[in-house]
Specification:
3 helices, five-stranded antiparallel beta sheet, 5 strands, alpha+beta
Length: about 170
């Protein structure tokens, strides 16, 4: 797991000294899903602080998957991940030894998700203590365990979809 100074420094404790739910989470983690055999990674959005999950695929698989994704979510509900699949492209990032990495993914930065950047002091002009309290009480922070489970579900769906689609092409 890698933590990098490129990420926004998130507050670790509230004014009462209680830890925020992201306190001990990494900004980046890479795994292999045992069931599907696909790799996946979790990346913290560098400004907003929420987590995103990505399943790694082959470059040639992107055209098969891309029509099933949309920036507003998965229009055909082909993939059930948090908020639908919202990313399907190459991920050209310095942490990967072999670049680029091709993937399909989702984010946890939707209207009903708790966004950690709301708790950064420099955003006081946008988020008052009252609105922060409201967000903590009403929105849900999608932690790394949640995103891992969503990635595993997405990896299985992607593997099954690609297997079935390739089988149809070979028939």
């Amino acid at each position: 797991m890698i933590n990098s100074p490129k990420w926004q420094k998130l507050p670790q404790h509230n004014e009462k000294g209680e830890p925020y739910p992201w306190k001990d989470e990494p900004n980046f983690a890479y795994y292999t899903d045992e069931d599907s055999g696909l790799d996946y990674f979790i990346n913290r959005h560098y400004e907003m602080g929420f987590l995103c999950g990505y399943v790694v695929v082959e470059k040639d698989d992107l055209p098969l998957l891309r029509p099933k994704t949309d920036l507003c979510g998965d229009p055909d509900d082909q993939f059930e991940a948090h908020g639908g699949a919202t990313f399907c492209d190459k991920f050209d990032w310095q942490f990967f030894k072999k670049l680029p990495v091709y993937c399909i993914g989702f984010d946890c930065g939707h209207g009903w998700d708790l966004l950690p950047f709301c708790f950064i002091e420099e955003f006081n002009f946008i988020y008052s203590p009252e609105s922060r309290k409201f967000k903590l009480e009403n929105d849900v922070y999608r932690d790394i365990k949640y995103v891992q489970n969503e990635c595993k579900k997405l990896a299985k769906q992607v593997a099954d979809y690609l297997k079935n689609h390739k089988k149809e092409e070979n028939s």
